[in-house]
């Protein structure tokens, strides 16, 4: 009895443990079964992970080593395209025609046949021979992408129109005389539509043509064009989708032969028409209403209240004494400002910048007769400069770079020149400035009596070396058109030359050349405008050869 009590005192829970253990055994068995299931699931997950990893590695390996990556087009440094028995038109356009991310070249010639690559003729479009061909050549190697006999005779070519035709595709507009408008597909050169007007031959086309919002609400932007004839400016609006004229022909009365420039003022868009002694201002809304015949509503368009106060709505003259007393207006150009476009007004002896915010003169500068349209570039980082090329004597010209904000002359150069010499061009550089390209013949100090007006040379100037010119090439041939561009985004800076006989000389050999700028820089002749201590010609060439270019959005 005592032993039983002692055992109970020593193991008071023994009996309960035995029962608990008996009850716990089935639960343990269940845990073992469950653990076994989880283990198998874990093994399946591990296998699935490694299989997925293995498949990913196979795909990466295939794309990296087996499947070739698309090759980036390799641009030739220089290429040529030749035509025989042709006359070039003074037009060059730079666009990516074949969508390979390299810019291509569009140009026009008058000829009986196209190149041997396409074997096209004027008869293919029902035109008499010779006729105007528009062609696109590859920027990479100069091969012909397409050719199109587009008009009997061409008076204007404009490419880069973003929406034309039923597919709203990029295209070119060809204007011929008598007045006819033809839309070409930028990708293929196919004719999208043709429309003509019954005018006599005394009109003058005002260029460029302008793209405007979708007036007829067919989903494609429309086109507005102007012609001047005996003190009247005619206004036409054409549908971008099929070329049909929208509304009627509007008419604007002016006191002479007019030209125009379009300026943007925040949400407003104005067309400034200028004659020799007058300046007229029309809002986009006014012009559309005049052409269509009814009041046109334009979304997101607002009139500029300050401008409206200075426009005589009976005559549409811009009533500003400071502008009207200029007289003898030769050029009107828009100059981008910090928040809106400003206006550069140039007459026979003076250039003036007008602030469009308050319509006051910002600065004035003495300038003789201009030889080419004012051009924009960057002499200082991100500050617009205006390039003015003016005549200073027989076969002599002066090129000035003028700061747009102050009118201060930042740099100037005097050159010999010849009639018909191309105007300047600019290329954006990575230091947020510009490389300037200009044609002429520089005379070394002390050799002013030497006269070589027939020789024209291409020079490069960059603001990092204000005392240096690089002579890139020289030519005695007739240059019909010249331009410079970045053929690939932020790289491959090139210039393009279209050379051939003038229309008065009759047909002859025509050449189109693209030349990579660095190829000429490496073999260029260094011209010292001012010699400085430590200057080294090869060092200058090397530095400018390594110059990087940067596209501006």
Rg over CA atoms: 35 Å
Roughly what percent helix? 10-25%
Number of helices: 7
Global geometry: globular
Let me know the average pLDDT: 86
End-to-end Cα distance: 106 Å
- Low-confidence spans: 1-34
Oligomer: single chain
Structural class: alpha+beta
Q: Got a strand count?
A: 31
Strand ordering within the main sheet: 4-3-2-1-30-29-28
Largest sheet: 7 strands, antiparallel
Percent of residues in beta strands: 35-45%
What report would you give on this structure?
The chain is α+β, with helices and mostly antiparallel strands and 553 residues long. The chain has a domain at 381-553. It is 17% helix and 43% strand. It contains seven helices and 31 strands. The protein has helices at 2-10, 14-66, 284-292, 305-310, 321-324, 517-522, 537-545, and strands at residues 78-95, 104-111, 131-137, 144-151, 154-164, 169-176, 180-185, 191-196, 204-212, 222-229, 232-238, 250-253, 259-265, 268-274, 279-283, 329-336, 341-347, 350-355, 360-366, 375-380, 383-393, 396-403, 409-416, 425-428, 434-440, 456-461, 468-475, 479-488, 491-499, 508-516, 525-528. It has a seven-stranded antiparallel β-sheet with strand order 4-3-2-1-30-29-28. The chain starts with a helix and ends in an 8-residue tail after the last helix.
């Amino acid at each position: 009895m005592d032993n039983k009590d002692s055992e109970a005192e020593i193991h008071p829970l023994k009996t309960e443990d035995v029962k608990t253990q008996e009850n716990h055994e089935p639960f343990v068995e269940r845990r073992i079964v469950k653990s076994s299931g989880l283990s198998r699931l874990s093994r399946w997950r591990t296998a699935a992970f490694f299989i997925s990893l293995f498949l990913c590695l196979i795909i990466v390996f295939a794309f990296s080593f087996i499947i070739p990556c698309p090759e980036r087009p390799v641009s030739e440094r220089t290429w040529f395209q030749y035509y025989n028995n042709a006359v070039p038109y003074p037009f060059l356009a730079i666009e990516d025609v074949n969508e390979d991310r390299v810019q291509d070249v569009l140009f026009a010639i008058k000829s009986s046949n196209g190149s041997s690559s396409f074997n096209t003729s004027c008869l293919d479009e029902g035109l008499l021979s010779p006729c105007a061909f528009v062609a696109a050549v590859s920027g990479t190697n100069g091969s012909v992408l397409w050719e199109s006999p587009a008009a009997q005779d061409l008076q204007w070519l404009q490419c880069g129109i973003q929406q034309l035709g039923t597919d709203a595709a990029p295209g070119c507009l060809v204007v011929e005389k008598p007045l006819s408008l033809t839309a070409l597909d930028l990708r293929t050169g196919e004719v999208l539509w043709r429309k003509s007007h019954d005018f006599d031959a005394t009109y003058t086309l005002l260029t460029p043509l302008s793209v405007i919002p979708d007036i007829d609400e067919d989903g494609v932007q429309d086109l507005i064009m102007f012609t001047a004839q005996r003190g009247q400016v005619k206004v036409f609006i054409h549908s971008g989708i099929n070329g049909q004229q929208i509304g009627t022909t509007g008419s604007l009365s002016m006191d002479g032969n007019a030209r125009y420039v379009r300026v943007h003022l925040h949400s407003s868009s104005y067309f400034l028409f200028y004659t020799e002694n007058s300046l007229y201002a029309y809002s986009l809304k006014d012009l559309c209403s005049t052409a269509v015949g009814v009041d046109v509503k334009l979304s997101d368009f607002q009139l500029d209240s300050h401008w409206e106060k200075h426009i005589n709505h009976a005559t549409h003259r811009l009533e500003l004494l400071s502008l009207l007393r200029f007289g003898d207006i030769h050029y009107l150009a828009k100059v981008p400002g910090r928040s809106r476009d400003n206006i550069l007004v140039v007459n026979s002896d003076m250039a003036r910048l007008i602030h469009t915010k308050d319509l006051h003169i910002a600065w004035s500068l003495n300038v003789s007769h201009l030889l080419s349209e004012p051009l924009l570039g960057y002499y200082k980082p991100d500050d617009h400069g205006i390039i003015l090329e003016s005549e200073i004597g027989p076969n002599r010209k002066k090129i000035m770079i003028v700061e747009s904000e102050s009118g201060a002359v930042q740099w100037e150069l005097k050159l010999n020149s010849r009639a018909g010499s191309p105007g300047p061009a600019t290329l954006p550089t990575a230091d947020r400035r510009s490389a300037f390209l200009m044609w002429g013949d520089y005379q070394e100090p002390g050799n002013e009596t030497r006269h070589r007006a027939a020789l024209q040379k291409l020079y490069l100037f960059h603001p990092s070396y204000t005392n240096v010119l690089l002579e890139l090439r020289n030519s005695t041939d007739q240059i019909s058109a010249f331009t410079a561009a970045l053929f690939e985004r932020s790289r491959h800076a090139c210039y393009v030359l279209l050379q051939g006989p003038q229309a008065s000389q009759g047909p002859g050999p025509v050449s189109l050349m693209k030349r990579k700028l660095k190829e000429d820089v490496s073999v260029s002749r260094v011209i010292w405008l001012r010699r400085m201590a430590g200057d080294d010609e090869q060092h200058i060439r090397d530095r400018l050869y390594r110059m990087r270019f940067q596209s501006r959005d």
